[in-house]
């Protein structure tokens, strides 16, 4: 009998193991709710005292993630109870100077935490929303914002003092008397004794009433403007604030057809590139002098510089929209007086002693970023660093800066072509490079002791991210992390411990902890992947380089089948500023799994970090300036040639696909290089850049009115007549990023051109990033069908 039970148990275990095996990949399997593969930990955060680590996790495949914790003594994840979760403070950067107290906002109220005792004092409890709490310069008060104004809460006695009095509208002054009215009043007072006595008595009473009133802040009227970024100086003598005048540009609407009401409902979306921007101004309220003065930008070096493309557009082939002619709007008359460029201001940062203030200013045309010292008493601006780019200022950490100590600032700049860390000495006016080399400093954090920086860089390899510790005066950085892949690191408040998410190409993100020192051994805390996911041998793609036609190396990932079928697919990642040919778990995990499915079917898959991808420095980042669909497309075309020459792929059996920017490149590929790609799937693609948003597009292509040639060259809708291969387009109908209108307009263009070899799949309830497994499944079944029907060798 025991033997029989053993056999039954053994057979049951085999059946169970098989039920947990992924088996042969199908679209239906890999596009299920992502929870089937396991849910990685997210939102890693140390408690203010550094003794507890909190993170969101879902190891039991629940409806949503829950909050978990570990401590130094117990590193087995424990689910946090509801009562504990609701009582937890919100982690904040608002500490006093010795980090013993922290103030924070939670649910619109302000709180004060004693870090050691964990005692919490609630400062406000209102139906309104108080926000942005900070310690005053003398640390005797908590400064916070409410309804446009600043208030101070006295720690010792709880008294609340209003510091500013900003009011909407215009100040209404008493009407001025005309000369006639003045004469009549004087005549009345001279001839009517009782009238004069009453008048003098009233005037005396008013004077006494005014003298006995408590001191109140100056009334400052902001008319119809919006106020933001309100700060008080550490000495309490100055308030800085910004005013914004709404330009009221036309806003787009996205119709939602499948609604609970049964009616079509409009979703208010964004403006389009080139829409008029809000005008922003910076002011200083001098409390002692009771005056308000505007900070002028006319002394900033280069503030009147015109963009380099004006009047000097390169000779290139453009779409029929402009017929090869330069736009007159791209020229500036030499007789025209230079105008101050519009700018935006960041928040003011103060040195620890409160004696110096610095601010970052950015040109609205994206060509300049200035780091400025600001003298509030005189409103004088002194340049610390100007970062200029004829294309657009950007890159990792390009706007990361702050005070090291009372006389030194740090900032990140692409001055050498790669994002690196610099310091500036206010006294000597000397700028020092703290890092250098052909790699990027991608994240900078100043330690609490202000003796060193914590950095994330890709110095080891463009496809890896590692954590370093660097002395603030420069020198050799210590590399703390060692495993190949990428790290997202959180340093404990006492800086003794590190918590980090780590992943590799075929291993999803997991949580680890380790001591904050070289040679420390990391301990894995979570194991999130399911047995089903682990049952399949997910491929570790080869990271290699492909030689582009201009001689540069393009980093790429190659998925190679054991039994090639002679066909290949090129995947084009999305943009914004993104990298995918790397050695960590991709945010495109569905696509990664789909590539494994394609390889199982014999396809070779190439995944390229084409021009403008993140991770490779300034020249790579700006390689698409004024021409999207230029070098970014030729890089993918050169990738197709690489597949033919190095992997024996049939040149007539190459497909291409991607979403968002990847969808745009797919359209440009099929429209302008139809001899290279037999089929393509353009998912949620931009079809006309003049219809995309301002923040992203204006940096790369400027504006349609100012640089119409760049928009015509870069927009697929003008090249649609070149379509020869099979095209699949997929788009969510409630996409508030790349609007459904984009693909509708292109569809009309294809209809008018009489094109037959295309189809459009629409998803009525999906935004830019799909959320429903059924939508993902439908989309990728169509993509697979497209490749199977057009890339497989015909018998």
TL;DR?
With 795 residues, the chain is an alpha+beta fold. Helix 4 crosses helix 5 (193-212).
**Major beta sheet summary:** 8 strands, mixed
Shape: globular
Distance between the termini: 59 Å
Report helical residue fraction. Answer: 10-25%
Mean pLDDT, all residues = 92
Model regions low in confidence, pLDDT < 50 over at least 5 residues: 1-19, 311-334
The Cα radius of gyration reads: 31 Å
Largest sheet: spatial strand order: 37-38-40-39-41-42-43-44
Helix and strand composition category: alpha+beta
Query: How much strand?
Result: 25-35%
The count of strands amounts to 44
The helix tally amounts to: 14
List keywords for this structure.
single chain; 8-stranded mixed sheet; 14 helices; 20% helix; disordered N terminus
Question: Could you outline the blueprint of secondary structure elements for this entry?
Answer:
Elements (H helix, E strand, L loop, with lengths): L1 H18 L7 H4 L11 E5 L5 E6 L8 E6 L6 E2 L2 H6 L13 E6 L2 E6 L5 E3 L7 E6 L5 E6 L2 E6 L5 E3 L2 E3 L11 H13 L1 H20 L6 E3 L4 E7 L5 E8 L7 E4 L8 E4 L10 E8 L4 E4 L48 E3 L3 E2 L6 E7 L4 E8 L4 E9 L12 E5 L2 E6 L6 E6 L4 E4 L7 E6 L5 E6 L8 E6 L6 E2 L6 E6 L5 E8 L2 E9 L7 E2 L6 H4 L7 E6 L5 E7 L8 E5 L16 H12 L3 E5 L9 H4 L9 H17 L6 E6 L1 H12 L6 E5 L10 H8 L6 H7 L11 E7 L7 H13 L5 E6 L9 H19 L4
Parallel strand pairs: 12-13, 39-40, 39-41, 41-42, 42-43, 43-44
Antiparallel strand pairs: 1-2, 2-3, 3-4, 5-6, 6-7, 8-9, 9-10, 10-11, 14-15, 15-18, 16-17, 18-19, 20-22, 21-22, 22-23, 23-24, 25-26, 26-27, 27-28, 29-30, 30-31, 31-32, 33-34, 34-35, 35-36, 37-38, 38-40
Helix pairs in contact: 4-5
